[in-house]
């Protein structure tokens, strides 16, 4: 046995503020393909002909997405008091000698020396327990059995091991008393080899062992109270951008009313939809060095010629292509392309047109207003409704961007020596959330799920996302510290309302829940909301219209 792991009840995994407060942009829902550049604006989903707002705003908690076990911030408690060990109320016949050493990553090493008097008392307890349960031939139940016979009956080695375990169980809570209230859940580790402890006990009738425990990290603001001088500058879309987006949405909804019909007697033109097979090769001086670019290839790709984020030069190169034809042409990915590994790459595309369609659109007049936006009777009403909704979405995006910028600032203002156990816990929570999302969108078989859940996959994620995980933890701890420093509060009515809403959501999704845990999680979410509200009021925020 290389060491004795002390496992105690978890208070639950962590949930980052970024996952609660970040509202994803509503992106144009095209079939994924690198020839399209993702829009950087607030756009609208093609999944349905209506504008969809975020699930909830970080400043309007009408609905909370909580799952059993999730936490907003780490909670600190003494892990040894979870029942796996004894209690400090179990008085010892002599004092322990404990030397505390501070180690990196908010870890404390406790070097514990257990005197012979304590070891002897634990030995006597073990003997008494054996005498209660042992059925020794020749002795009636309840009769006194000589110690030597009990030891011989149970086995000397067994008695020694049981005594060492008894010593650990009784002394560990006393040894940890110096970190009471600071020790992180599930972080206690007895570093001394069990066999070494056993040898020490046998030879000296005393015991020595080292305990490693992660403690709640201290938060240092640089400079002191830096959060009170938070400054952020945000670039926002102009009203003209919002108007353009509203017009795009109207165009999309109009197109959704037109059925697709097969093109039989001409080539591709703007307004058509084509089903394409796309292959791509790098262009090299030596053609033998050309390589396929799988990320830029697709089969059966539905290409709408009216999208505005297509790779420059791609559409112009295939205009006129007919069903059944193939065209080959060079294109250079611009340096501003989102996918970094394709920036500046010279590519030879080969495109085969499998099917070609055009839309038979109804005339854009008042007769179709109700179909475009329910409740509208004229095209002018439709345009006004879309503009108003665009403005609402832009406002929500502004609030989200403000909160994101403030939280990003907080990460830079704090210095924290993050415990390894806290880092791993947060990282596993993030990885688990990603895995659940992937499973929800892609049906993974057992083999794929096992591979993604393997220790190697998790550790690879922890390493690759180290900076991100670290920033999330710093952000979470900073939020908790501000809530305490500024004596922020929320009302009982707010708590009750959000608990009710959260439970309602869990019931709708047919999820099991514990009401007390939901209430605890809601408290933490409300704390985070109050901190962001306080920061929005007290921070210096500058908006620039692009």
Q: Helix amount, in percent?
A: 40-55%
Based on CA inertia axes, which overall geometry fits?
A: elongated
Order of helices and strands: EHEEHHHEHEEEHEEEHEEHHEHHHHHHE
Q: Look at the helices and sheets and give the structural class.
A: alpha+beta
> Tally the helices: what do you get?
15
Strand content: 15-25%
Strand order of the largest sheet: 1-4-5-3-2
Distance between the termini: 64 Å
Weakly predicted, low-confidence segments: 1-34, 38-84
Instruction: Give the biggest sheet.
Output: 5 strands, antiparallel
What's the CATH class label of the domain at 226-236 and 398-545? Mainly Alpha
- The average pLDDT value, as a whole number, equals 82
- What is the count of β-strands? 14
CATH architecture grouping of the domain at 226-236 and 398-545: Orthogonal Bundle
CATH topology tier name of the domain at 226-236 and 398-545: Trigger factor, domain 2
Computed Rg: 33 Å
Please give a structural write-up.
This is peptidylprolyl isomerase. It catalyses: [protein]-peptidylproline (omega=180) = [protein]-peptidylproline (omega=0). InterPro entries: PPIase_dom_sf (IPR046357), Trig_fac (IPR005215), Trigger_fac_C (IPR008880), Trigger_fac_C_sf (IPR037041), Trigger_fac_ribosome-bd_bac (IPR008881), Trigger_fac_ribosome-bd_sf (IPR036611), Trigger_fact/SurA_dom_sf (IPR027304). The chain is of the alpha+beta class and 546 residues long. Among the domains are: 97-216, Alpha-Beta Plaits; 226-236 and 398-545, Trigger factor, domain 2; 259-360, Roll (Chitinase A, domain 3), CATH 3.10.50. 41% of the residues lie in helices and 16% in strands. It has helices at residues 17-21, 116-133, 147-154, 156-175, 194-204, 239-256, 314-318, 369-372, 379-413, 420-441, 446-452, 455-464, 466-485, 492-508, 515-538; strands at 4-5, 97-103, 107-114, 189-190, 207-214, 219-221, 231-236, 260-262, 273-282, 298-304, 326-332, 346-359, 414-416, 540-545. A 5-stranded antiparallel beta sheet has the order 1-4-5-3-2. Strands 8, 9, 10, 11 and 12 form a 5-stranded antiparallel beta sheet that branches. A two-stranded antiparallel ribbon has the order 6-13. Helix 9 (379-413) packs across helix 13 and helix 10 (420-441) packs across helix 13. The longest helix has 35 residues, at 379-413. It is elongated and about 105 Å long. Residues 1-34 and 38-84 have low confidence and may be disordered.
